[in-house]
Write a structure and sequence with these properties.
- This protein is of the alpha/beta class.
- It has 16 helices and seven strands.
- The chain has two domains: about 40-240, 3-Layer(aba) Sandwich (Rossmann fold), CATH 3.40.50.620; about 260-370, no CATH class.
- It has helices at about 25-35, 40-55, 70-85, 105-115, 125-140, 145-160, 170-175, 205-210, 225-230, 245-255, 265-270, 280-295, 295-305, 315-325, 330-340, 345-355; strands at about 65, 90-95, 115-120, 165-170, 235, 360, 370.
- Helix 3 (about 70-85) links the parallel strand 1 and strand 2 (about 90-95).
- Helix 5 (about 125-140) packs across helix 6 (about 145-160).
- The longest helix is centred in the middle third of the chain and has 18 residues, at about 145-160.
- The structure holds zinc ion.
């Protein structure tokens, strides 16, 4: 296990790679950001958007912005409307009632209060629960289907509503280092379907889980052909945005009425309670991700702060050590109740996914890391 020389991204990260100096894609990207002429980029973005919305200037909505109600969504919606001068329809794919945390609808209501039109699409609760359960048992990742819905549902809405422009925030190929989603240029998000969460996102396994009467449309990313037929273009805003960052987005959203989680970083693994706040089981998945790859939310947040120059790598290591893998028992218990597993069955499943080169598995209790974040682990 090797770590980026600048931040704490390990080489176990799917779809990532290091340059010859041992830096990850995201750090190389962050460094390049300092040399980018953002005024020029913004002009480029505005010209591109002007070409794409010219024919629908008189329509009620110029574009769709996919939102979760989170901090990035707040910032993005406001930027699209107030900086770019577009009228967006905000589309969010929600969670079924048993999964939804209270703060999620509060934040969506806040977006509505800020004057946005919001469309929330909820998955069928029976289908959703079944896919959550099966995603966990099959892939050790309950979010497998949900993440597909988050992206696919927004593109589906574009087709259904005849709105042919969809805007996303950051380009993960550049910013996070997910190379699978590179498009023809940095603005092009038409390859979003290749994003790691969607890649291998075939939904054949759904048919082994669900009976045929259940609709799976929400989970199916439209084909290139369908999107082309309806002329849907998908564009990343991130490359034209000089101060898109974890810290800036959180601060900007808070100033606009965004609500944080009320539980502690030790319970959630989230330093400020500002990430993935609309339900609790992402925290369970974060813990499993840690067992699989040796990093989770603590590392992600530390990395963002390191790249922003707000903390040192050493301070980042402390955050990662303190928060990676954190998950309060209460979230595990509510997750088990939801999918109908006992705690013993849950841990039996989780153990199957633990990377044994990175973790020791004691006879009782949670797996214990053999590594320290940021320090290469030999022989793994
Ligand atoms: Zn890095």
């Amino acid at each position: 296990m090797r770590f980026c020389s600048t931040c704490l991204v390990p080489d176990t990260r799917p779809n990532g790679r290091f340059d010859v100096e041992g830096r990850c894609q995201a750090c190389t990207f962050a460094e390049q950001q300092g040399h980018v002429d953002f005024e020029q980029r913004l002009v480029e973005l505005e010209e591109r958007l002007e070409r794409l919305v010219r024919h629908r200037r008189r329509h009620r909505w110029h574009c769709i912005v996919g939102v979760s109600g989170g901090k990035d969504s707040h910032r993005q919606a406001l930027w699209v409307r107030d900086r770019l001068g577009l009228r967006p329809l905000l589309v969010s794919i929600g969670y079924p009632p048993r999964q939804q945390a209270e703060v999620g609808p509060k934040n969506l209501s806040n977006l509505a209060a800020l004057g946005f039109d919001c469309l929330t699409i909820l998955p069928g609760p029976v289908t959703s629960r079944q896919l959550v359960r099966d995603g966990f048992l099959r892939f050790g990742n309950w979010q497998k289907a949900t993440e597909m819905a988050l992206f696919s549902g927004v593109q589906q809405a574009a087709i259904a509503r005849h709105i042919d422009l969809v805007l996303w925030g950051e380009n993960p190929a550049l910013q996070v280092g997910d190379l699978g989603s590179l498009g023809v240029d940095m603005w092009d998000a038409n390859n979003l379907r290749n994003l790691n969460t969607l890649a291998g996102g075939d939904i054949d396994w759904f048919h082994e889980v669900l009976d045929d009467r259940r609709s799976t449309t929400l989970y199916r990313f439209p084909t290139h052909l369908e999107l082309e037929r309806d002329g849907v273009n998908t564009v990343f805003l991130g490359p034209g945005w000089s101060d898109w960052s974890f810290a800036q987005n959180t601060a900007a959203a808070l100033l606009q009425g965004f609500n944080l989680r009320s539980d502690t970083p030790e319970a959630t693994g989230d330093l400020y309670g500002s990430c993935q706040i609309d339900e609790d089981w992402t925290i369970v998945n974060g813990m499993i991700k840690w067992f699989k790859f040796g990093f989770s939310q603590g590392t992600e947040e530390a990395n963002a702060l390191i790249r922003a120059g707000l903390i040192s790598r050493e301070q980042g290591v402390e955050i990662a050590r303190r928060l990676d893998g954190a998950c309060d028992d209460a979230y595990i218990e509510s997750f088990c109740t939801y999918i109908g597993l006992s705690l013993n069955e849950f841990w039996g499943e989780v153990r199957r996914w633990v990377n044994r080169e990175l973790f020791d598995i004691p006879s009782t209790g949670r797996p214990v890391p053999k590594f320290v974040p940021g320090t290469d682990l030999e022989g793994s």
